[in-house]
Write a structure and sequence with these properties.
12 copies of one chain form a homododecamer. Chain A is built from 5 helices and 5 strands; from the N terminus they run βααβαβαββα. By secondary structure, chain A is an alpha/beta fold. In chain A, strands 2-1-3-4-5 form a 5-stranded parallel beta sheet, with helices on both faces.
Chain lengths: ~150, ~150, ~150, ~150, ~150, ~150, ~150, ~150, ~150, ~150, ~150, ~150
């Protein structure tokens, strides 16, 4: 039962630019659009979500820490930090919260270095390549688990 | 609108044993349970699904081929073939169908060799580590796309 | 003198789809077209050919085995199995027959993983990137050798 | 006490050709000879053995599955699949049966790629390079364990 | 014609210490000296430059974002982030601005890990090893292009 | 003689969570406990210590810079940045201060990626796996050197 | 229709020694023999061929350049340069001519370093291991294409 | 016929501690127990065995040398030297004796570095993971061969 | 003061074809155009330049040698030799002259093998991706240094 | 409470030469000096130490074995064996004693091969680069733990 | 008996500059000095030597070819070509002459890439790091062999 | 002038077996033969040599140490330790003596792992593949240097 569950949604570096350039990779949906869809879904699911975006690895870690005791789970799109931020991996592990990693594009069909997620082993699961719907599916999965 | 859409669900090697041994990794849900949930979901979504399981790489390729012109998309859990079957990768590419790759467990939190999917670049997306719900989420994503 | 020579032609996984999708890589010639050209060439060369296509590694190995004592040589396009089927490599070695490996497209100008053939060291030679003509050239070379 | 124990013996790809070509590597003993020796040994040990050979990865997996509940252990020579079949590795793990991997030749004194067994970590042990006697020794070890 | 062009100059981590220690590698010119030379050059070229220095990857990404629509191009010395910040690479790609990467020292004649720039593929070009003059040359090239 | 020496202690990402979760790896001592022990030790050694914790790579670099001219040495536990922050490595080199790297747990007995410290070559030494005592030993070594 | 087509045949380093030593690898046919066979074939095909042999990478590149506008295609056996001459690869790409790479011996059944052709991605195709006949087959394929 | 055959059994480094600590890996059988079983087996097989244990690579090499002309074969468990002692590999090759390598535990199911035996290519065969029985099986195989 | 300075400009393999094919990579400027711009720049800078182009590694080395004592510095675009000519690297080191390496295109945004310059550590600096202007900027930097 | 504790100190290969050559790396303190300091420290700590030095891997393993039941912990500087002696790693694991690995110099600031310790995962901790004081700090840590 | 033996001495790229720059690596002996010593040695040994130097890989190959039938052996210092010229390796193999590879400096104590000789497996032996004396020793060895 | 010079000759593992088995690699000369030739050469050169052979890495290190102050140089054939004994590398470095590494066979024409000498960078030079003469040449070079 997801009533009253609180989920933190974290958008990593460069995701604030979504819907602008490189739409052939990321689509034309903006971050505000995604936020709107997430909020509508949360309303209909009787859960609460809060979201933040940052280009700073340190602030993303701070956000994960701050979620401990205040949120029931996290949806995270770590952007480029996916591929090297062991510090975010450590933060997720230390938080003890269920975390779902979401990527808008199919990271396996792009540059070779995008195929490795250092964050993935600390997460519950990954949803990749399904665009903005990936966030809703992740939220749905997280609520179902809780 | 997903009415009348037809989706093929392919279960790769060893998935016929689900719910028996190694439940600490794969959970206790059996393949029949997953089939049942998929069918209920399909009914409520007014789409049709068909599924097959095989331990043979060749039969999985045959199944992908046979889906061309008969199905609108594929949900595939290639099991261990995920990690080396370039032939399945080629079959997915050649089929031209939207395919979503699903893994029950978090393949990034197990043996190192499970972290690489050779199939992934040919798929639309991946859903990893979310158990049997991953199939439903994949189906949902596929229908939404079509 | 090639009169009465018998050659087995083996088409590996996904080659049954030739001439359909991905024609920018493989061309628009179908497998039936290639078969027809091979048969015409065989007729004019007074040799006999037999061919089979399979998506199954095991059946390709069975076919190589069955050629022992019944055929004088093999033309094989192992498709994606080229890159990892040590079992087919072993079958070719064990057969003791002269085998020529053919690839329709230039496997060196595609994905990195296609550049390695594990089968090649067991073959007499390779013909790569010359389309359907590669089969005829391979047949010609095989007959000339015998 | 090995009375009434049932052991499945699985011979992988190309082993049907044993005793023919490449006898400098594999010796001149045929698969039928090995079968005969195994049966004589089984008789004298009051155990039952059943055996199968296949060139197909999928059928080998099927055989491992079918052994669950019907056999007490498995002797397997996975042939070339030894070096890449994660699917057979998974099948062995999933079966929960004690499995002994046997290789006729010293795989460490041949091509570099033969030195790695992806199957080995799922097995109880390995017997390598001891020819047909390796099967009898494996059977002996398996019975002693049970 | 470079009149009225606006260029952002970004100095990455540790560059605030220039001219102090390690002068055998970086020379004795301070960041203030470089700024002065850049400004004099900008004046004589009738362009405008603005510069920032930060030790924080996140702030460098913020700066690149903020340049969109406000600047015509970027000169960046990403310091140590050159070698691992895929997030800065992504920011440059997303900005759509022409960017020139500058390094004071010859990064190929130092530690092995300095030879790889993950940022370079997203830039228009690189100027390496030419000391403070590299900035002026980069500016010159950028203005010539615009 | 360590009288009047001033040492900066830097705690990297996620170390603010010490003593909470993952105590099987890091023990139950909190960062405050470590601070207290360090201060008692400093008092008895007639030196002064100051400490900071940050999850931000940039702020850690700022702290190292700010230590130049104000402190006689640094004790640093770079947390996960140990494994990829060339920028911190550069900052330590540029500072010219003696720095001792401390890790609470034995980084060699955990994930493979934790075995490499990119920071270590710039430090005077490393103390690994000795828990909170590592900090005191590091401080002791630093004072002895000065 | 191949009438009037002009083909340049380039023999790389050490091929002038053909038919002498190492005949167990390269056979006893000399370069003059191959030239003779090529000329006979050209005559019967109503095309013109010209050939050159050089041990110098630079002269081979010069030859490729000189073929632009004067020849309709190239048959090249780059000898050892196959494995490292990016300059020849560049020359082939720049020439815009269809080029077929020929190797007398099966380069996959010799030293490991011979298995990689850096030239291959720039060529139309490769014919490997078919001895002097490989040249005739290459010529045939080139004429058929034109 | 194994009457009068003499076999040297060599136990490598740390095997003197068998049966003490780490019994979850190596079992509780002591080296003395194994010796006893070997001697009983030798008695019943009418062969003679001699054994030695050493932690020193040099002494193991000395022992192999001393076996030349005095023994008919060697059973060796090289312990950790398995993974790096090219000197023992050379000694086995130089001795010309048939040697069987035995490992108590499944070296493929432990640390990655244990999966490679540098000694194996010089041996006749390997018996792995079958505990103390591995020694008896190795002895049996050796006697059968002689 | 650059008066009377003499600079040798070396153009490596395939650069004689500039401005012809592959203009999407290298632009439409011919080598003659670049020469003209260099000469105009040299005139206005009161320095003298001489240039040579060769497809031969040996002749490029000869040219570098001949520059010793006759020129004050070298601008070199080693073309494909950039990636493997240790001999040119050695020649530059041995010459003792300041050398600037220039590449027309961004070698980091093309094939992976183009990202490594074996020549770079022997040079003073590199200018990459700035087209023909790179030569002028290199000349400018060289003169400023002298 | 460290009263009556007994610690074995093991000095590996070449450490007998300390204080002689290569003092720029290892300092001018001799092994006798270190022994003296260790003994003074032990006296003041009311513990007992015994030490040995050997250039032989086997004797170091013997020493570790002999410490079982007779000592409470070990301080070891394995010298060059650090980087390849899996046998010493095994001995430490088998001993079950707490072991601290000490290196006089910063092994991370020397040759690349010195950066890997195969011994480290079996030890409790490491003290690196702190000269002879490293031994005293290690002893102190060991006593504090006991 | 070395009377009347004829030896070709080949000096590879950049060796014409010997005795000038980089004397800390190569010494101050010039190539003329080495030639003189070789000739004196040849005179006293009643053999004849001829020598050539070239910066061109192709000319070195030509020289090796020309030695066939005219010389009894070759002394070669392939300079930088040592590390990548498979074409020279092939030429040596094809020549069938005994060849000794000489390097003035210890190539193992310089850049990592100098440690690999691709030429060495085709030579009879190597003499490394013994300066100009290496040539005399090589000549001596060659004559002794003949 | 070599009068009165004292040289230590060290023969590594398995060299005591020289002249017996594997003569196709090492020749039929025994170690005693080599000793005799060395002594004759030493007599004629008015120098003194002493030699030792050991299969033990530790004893070889002891021997190198003992040479300090007593010998003027060392000739060493480290046998298989060549490829992994960093401890011998360290001993040579620490000894400060000029050392020449000798190998009887061409280590570059055998197994891949024999191509790397970890000892070489610490030596003055290497003589490889010249059989027993290599020792005499090494001695000659050493005396010439002293």
């Amino acid at each position: 039962m997801s009533d009253n569950k609180k989920i933190l949604v974290i958008h990593g570096p460069n995701l604030n630019l979504l819907g602008g350039r490189e739409s052939e990779i990321y689509g034309s949906t903006t971050l505000a659009d995604i936020e709107k869809k997430l909020r509508e879904f949360a309303d209909s699911s009787h859960c609460m979500i809060e979201s933040m975006q940052s280009n700073s690895e340190g602030k993303i870690i701070d956000a994960i820490h701050s979620a401990m005791g205040r949120f029931d789970g996290i949806i995270i799109n770590p952007g480029a930090y996916t591929h090297y931020s062991i510090a975010i991996y450590d933060a997720i592990l230390a938080s003890g919260l269920p975390v779902i990693e979401v990527h808008l594009s199919n990271i396996h069909a792009r540059e070779e270095f995008r195929r490795r997620s250092v964050v993935a082993p600390a997460c519950k699961g990954q949803i990749i390549g399904l665009g903005w719907r990936g966030y809703l599916l992740g939220l749905q999965a997280l609520l179902a688990e809780l």
